[in-house]
Amino acid sequence: MGIARHRPLPGTCAGQQCLFHRQQGASLVEFAVVLPLLLLLLVGVVYYGYAFVLKTALERATGNAAQLATQTLDPSTGGIDESAVRAVVLSSLEWAPPQAITVGFSGPGAAECGAGAAGGIRVSLDTRSPGVMAFQSVEFLGVVVPPTNPGGMIAEACYGYP
Questions:
Q1: Per-residue pLDDT in tens (0 to 9) along the chain, 162 residues
Q2: Could you tell me the residue ranges of all domains in the chain?
């Protein structure tokens, strides 16, 4: 006659078909496990990228201020127009609230600038002030994202005689 074939009972599977049914939900479970980790990684990359943008903007503003200080340096007195230098810093960081920005000046021979410099400028940005950081901290599965705000960024530049 012929070869008798075994037929599976209703509700069961045989061979490759059974393997397919067992694997069907595994990808959904894997996705559910990996998705929060990927989102955590993405938020971290965006947050730290934003912090680097802030630091670069702060350094650029300080460099602009030092350039103006060099241009307005009075050789006879060694003084600079501090109000103009502050205005350059504030206009370079126009997106930040003025109360979050501090501009400091040091005289000739300042330790951070060396002996040949006429002076130095130190600009600090308080990142805890409202309106500076665009992202708020969120707790997710016991992890604070982004991590605690360090509180401030500092950039320094020196100026001298051209």
A1: 556 565 655 556 655 555 555 566 778 888 889 998 898 888 778 878 887 888 888 889 888 888 888 888 877 777 788 888 889 988 988 888 888 888 888 876 666 676 667 778 888 888 777 767 655 566 666 766 655 566 678 888 887 765
A2: 16-159
What residue type is assigned to position 115 of the chain? A
Q: Which residue has the tokens 């950081």?
A: 133
Q: Report pTM.
A: 0.67
